[in-house]
Amino acid sequence: MSLNLILIVITILVSILALYKPVWFDRLKFNAFQIRHERQSWRFVTYAFVHAGWIHLLINMWVLYSFGGIVEKRLSTIFGPRGLLFYFLLYFGGIIFSVLWDYGKQKENIFYNAVGASGAVSGVLFSSILFYPMGGIYLFPIPFSIPAWLFGILYLVYSAYMGNRGKDNVGHNAHFFGALFGIVYTAIIVPGVLKDFITQFFG
Predict the structure, then answer these.
(1) How far apart are CA 74 and CA 54, in angstroms?
(2) How far is 184 from 180, CA to CA, in rounded Å?
(3) Residues facing 106 on adjacent strands
(4) Reduced 3-state DSSP string for 118-144
(5) Is residue 181 classed as helix, strand or coil in its secondary structure?
(6) What's the CA gap between 200 and 203, in Å, rounded?
(7) Residue 96 contacts residue 44 (beta carbons within 8 Å)
(8) pTM score, whole prediction
(9) What is the pLDDT of residues 9-42, one digit of tens each?
């Protein structure tokens, strides 16, 4: 079983447990106030393994399944057995990095909570966009695919705009910074990926 599938299985199992056991949900969710004032630093990671509902869980896991395997395979092709380590660091780095902005903003707000793997999934998704910028991404209900590079631009602009508005319950900041982490991390560990990106884009 691939590492990506293991992450999906663990996330599904923990999310189901948390959905039926509110005490676990409360214990694992991201809460910047409790991290800062009660030293519950595990929340920087555990929040990504619980979800607000079935739809939230299914969407994240479907996107991770669709793109995570691609990135894991590419990293394994480049680095051999070390590729699994690099994929692990991509995913867990995305989990942590994607909430640092909100931690800074919300560390005195006891009522701010966040759950879901969206930040880490965004990191994986944008890593795949760097590798395959001309690939197609389908968005329901649009009946045709959108080039991955165009989707990436629209996604970042939308996430930044909605994050600044802050008028809904979606973690747009986590999406934005998770995506940014995926781009920077992939560019660092695979130095030639930006050159390949440009070559594919203009080729």
Answers:
(1) 30
(2) 6
(3) none
(4) HHHHHHHHHHHHHHCCCCEECCCCCCC
(5) helix
(6) 5
(7) yes
(8) 0.91
(9) 999 999 999 999 999 999 999 999 999 999 999 9
Chain Cα centroid distance, residue 107: 21
pLDDT tens digits, one per residue of 65-89 = 989 999 999 999 999 999 999 999 9
34 touches 107 (CB < 8 A): no
CB 148 within 8 A of CB 118: no
**What φ, ψ does residue 98 adopt, rounded to 5°?**
-65, -20
H helices of 21-117, in order, are 22-28, 32-37, 43-46, 54-79, 82-97, 100-106
The H-or-E segment that residue 198 falls in is: helix 193-202
Nearest to 67 by CA among 10, 141, 16, 136: 136
Domains of the chain: 3-202 (1.20.1540.10)
Which helix (H) or strand (E) segment holds residue 14: the answer is: helix 3-20
- Exposure string (b/e) for 7-46, b if CB count within 10 Å is 16 or more? bbeebbebbeebbeeeebbeebbbbbbbbeeeebeebbeb
